[in-house]
Design goal:
Blueprint lengths: L1 H9 L3 H13 L1 H13 L7 E5 L5 H9 L4 E6 L2 H10 L1 H5 L3 E5 L12 E7 L8 H9 L2 E11 L8 H17 L3 E8 L5 E7 L19
The structure holds S-adenosylmethionine.
């Protein structure tokens, strides 16, 4: 039963999937963490932004509000989530400021311009090969572009320690994928949310230190 529910959060589908989408859209902590993650990124009005695994589309709405002369792309492999997020962001889609695609992160589309920012919230844990996909996502970012990966562990009994471990894993994966200047931020919910922000190095900066603020020891 638990496995079935977890699978629904990894790829909501059918009637239970619509319910899972409704829960994610209405849980106060989900809204709070989406707004917080977006607030950590210095999104500019003309930015090109991608969210991977947008679920019910709360962060997409906030990104579109900030990048109001740019473009926000979203990919999610769930039909149910694409439908919900299209409804939630109908006006921005009509005015061609938001494009949503049903695809998996291991089948990335091409984009017209290099991206300024990439975001993923509680999604990476479901990707088939996260380090490889982070490398491919890095290839879509402009030099100096940013990525933010957030995690709020939802497993039973999750604590601040669970969040800290998740933060260290995200940090390590980003570093292995070639991102630099990784730093961790934490939002004190129950359990806390960790967001790891990192940069796609400009050419010739690959040798820069990989971490401005290293994660705490295990
Ligand atoms: C737990 S939900 C989180 C949704 C949203 N980011 C939030 O914080 O409310 C995970 C989302 O990631 C999507 N997802 C999981 N694996 C994916 C993949 N390989 N490619 C694209 N989307 C994926 C799921 O369909 C789901 O919508």
């Amino acid at each position: 039963m638990t496995t079935k529910i977890v699978r629904q959060f990894g790829r909501p589908h059918g009637v239970p999937g619509r319910l899972v989408g409704w829960v994610m859209a209405h849980r106060a902590s989900n809204l709070q963490r989406s707004l917080w993650v977006v607030s950590l990124l210095d999104v500019q009005p003309t930015d090109q932004v991608l969210e991977v695994g947008f679920g019910p589309g709360l962060a997409i709405a906030e990104l579109a509000r900030r990048a109001n002369q740019g473009h926000v792309y979203g990919i999610d492999h769930s039909d149910a989530m694409v439908r919900q997020t299209r409804k939630r962001n109908a006006a921005a889609i009509r005015t061609q400021r938001v494009t949503l695609l049903r695809t998996s992160v291991d089948r990335l589309p091409r984009f017209d311009k290099p991206l300024d920012t990439i975001v993923a919230v509680n999604s990476l844990g479901f990707w088939p090969n996260p380090t490889q996909q982070l490398g491919e996502l890095r290839g879509l970012l402009r030099p100096g572009g940013h990525i933010a990966l957030a995690s709020q562990p939802r497993c039973a009994g999750a604590t601040a320690d669970t969040t800290a471990r998740a933060g260290r894993e995200l940090h390590d994966r980003l570093t292995q994928a070639g991102f630099t200047q990784a730093r961790l931020e934490t939002l004190p919910l129950a359990p806390p949310v960790v967001c790891v922000l990192a940069t796609n190095p400009s050419e010739g900066q690959d040798e820069m230190p990989t971490s401005a603020s290293p994660p705490p020891p295990a």
